Amino acid sequence: MALPTQGAYASSKGAVEQLTNVLVLEWAQAGVQVNAIAPAYCETPLTKPVFNDPERNRFVCERTPMGRWGQPHELAGAVIFLASDASSFVTGHVLKVDGGWNAW
């Protein structure tokens, strides 16, 4: 998702997805799965300044179809799935845990 003034940030996210794909091609034959998790805004100490800014907080909530910030514990299910045998044939996937942020 592109946002004004966020060129470097958005580019780095795209780079993670491409790196995931390249590593799949390099490591799959060795039995190594490569996946990534792409969270949207989660309430953490690092994002506290954005969360505490009423205008920016409103933007995040209005832009997220679920209408709220994610919580760190909500990433746990994705991590557990990707680390478990349930994902034994999943590789090269970027799992969005974003409350619908990327649906726009």
Give an overview in words.
The protein is mainly alpha-helical. It has a single domain (7-103), classed as NAD(P)-binding Rossmann-like Domain (Rossmann fold), CATH 3.40.50. It has helices at residues 7-27, 48-52, 54-63, 76-83; strands at 36-39, 94-97. It has a two-stranded parallel ribbon. The longest helix has 21 residues, at 7-27. The N and C termini lie close together (8 Å).
Q: What is the ordering of alpha helices and beta strands? A: HEHHHE
The stretches of 5 or more residues where confidence is low (pLDDT under 50) are none
| Main sheet: strand order | 1-2
Total beta strand runs: 2
Strand content: 5-15%
Shape: globular
Would you identify the CATH H-level superfamily?
A: NAD(P)-binding Rossmann-like Domain
Radius of gyration: 16 Å
Give the structural class: mainly alpha
Number of individual domains: 1
Give me the CATH architecture, please. Answer: 3-Layer(aba) Sandwich
- Mean of residue pLDDT? 95
Helix count from the secondary structure assignment: 4
> What is the distance, rounded to the nearest whole angstrom, between the alpha carbons of the first and last residues?
8 Å
CATH class: Alpha Beta
What fold name goes in the CATH topology slot?
A: Rossmann fold
Helix content: 40-55%
- Let me know the largest β-sheet: 2 strands, parallel
